[in-house]
Amino acid sequence: MDDQKPRDKKKISPERKGLYYAGMAMMGIGIILFLSVFFIAFTGDPFAYEGNFMQNGFYGFILIGAGIFVMNLGARGAAGSGLVLDPEKAREDLTPYTKAAGGMLKDALEEIDLPSAKSGEKEVVRVRCIHCRALNEEDARFCKNCGKEM
Q1: CA atoms in the 13 A half-sphere facing the CB of 11
Q2: Cα dihedral angle (65, 70, 75, 77), rounded to 10 degrees?
């Protein structure tokens, strides 16, 4: 059961997916409303249109902005998008987003194998013998291969 919890954190919840798609729908409707102004203006007499045809463009523009906000909220979560100021919750909310976006520095470091100072491994520097070209430790006075002085 403990193995499943980290995997579940990397997935985006259905509620957030729903918010994302709702934001996309709002943007789509907003774009249609915004472009309808140009369609009405170029296909006929805009003043023959009942009501103020510029209202569609204004409402469309507002819907596009609201759709972007809702999409951002769905993609990054409440804390990740800055709506809720909680750094720990933001990291949790952004986990799937950062993995999909290429990851953060910590994620990149997790993927490579670096020898750490805590592992107790001592870095050894080797020097080539000028006579036989064998590798010896840095502080060796004589070559371990040919026995000549370094």
Answers
A1: 8
A2: 130
Contact, 68 vs 23, CB < 8 A? yes
Does pTM top 0.70 for this prediction?
no
Render pLDDT for 91-113 as a digit per residue (tens, 0 to 9). 777 666 555 555 556 656 666 76
